[in-house]
Protein: Adenine DNA glycosylase
Amino acid sequence: MTAPTKPPHTGPADPDPAAESAPAGSPLHAPVIDWFDEHARDLPWRRPEAGAWGVMVSEFMLQQTPVSRVLPVYERWLARWPRPADLAAEAPGEAVRAWGRLGYPRRALRLHGAAAAITERHGGDVPSDHAALLALPGIGEYTAAAVASFAYGRRHAVLDTNVRRVFARAVTGVQYPPNATTAAERRLARALLPEDETTAARWAAASMELGALVCTAKNEACHRCPIAAQCAWRLAGKPAHDGPPRRGQTYAGTDRQVRGRLLAVLREAHGPVPQAALDRVWHEPVQRARALDGLVADGLVEPLAGGRYRLPLS
DNA sequence: GAACCGTGGGT
DNA sequence: TACCCAAGGTT
Structure:
């Protein structure tokens, strides 16, 4: 039992299915949700005790970071800060340090800021309203929908990279979705959203899990796919992606790499770090200074008198 | 819309 | 080895 809510089966116990006024819905729903009931991973943020805060923390950490690397950090985070107010009471630098090597450390800062806003504006409770979630730092369209859906069972189209790929293949018949989310994709996601709120929330989690475990970017496992028989891409002979190349992100030699090295030194140090210690991480002084300035501008690093630096106390 | 923002594992 | 990719958000 890994899923947060019960499967809304229409089984023989149903009084009279023919009497339902609502349309049948997509033929994709039932197979995908049934598959999810059987194969969903037992992830800590899916357990009831995770609560909305646990769901929200997991969503921040999972933005561009794989599940396997999130798991240990998530557990320590929730043990240390079981409620938003607990995190809000800490220095932001502590969030950055606890973030460890998950990457994109601005997410840690934003999660801290979101916890503070929740404490101030929402009485310490993660809001369930999509607009209220969207107003929090670090929460965009996807995360707002995910928290509302996964934590509160609300009816929202949850359109992440997994779902976009599943829809691209199963419905549109292409190998990959466009580089950026399009209005057509949002329209499709809304059209496919089950009417019933509980079913919609399960569909959101199930379609995402299908993309993560079966309908993967590479080496898709169609033989394990519950909708393989209906998949437009597969039925078309799985044509290769033709559009513009999916832009890869260079990393070596970029400011990002320098920032990462600088912040690693500050994370591992407790207390102020002298300039000389930071100078050692990168040979090129201009780029090094630019990276450090960027970290300060982002609020990830606090400059002190005498050319010393530390993670931010405020 | 494009560019930027980390990190590590799989192939 | 080099490249691809991973539950995005902000500017």
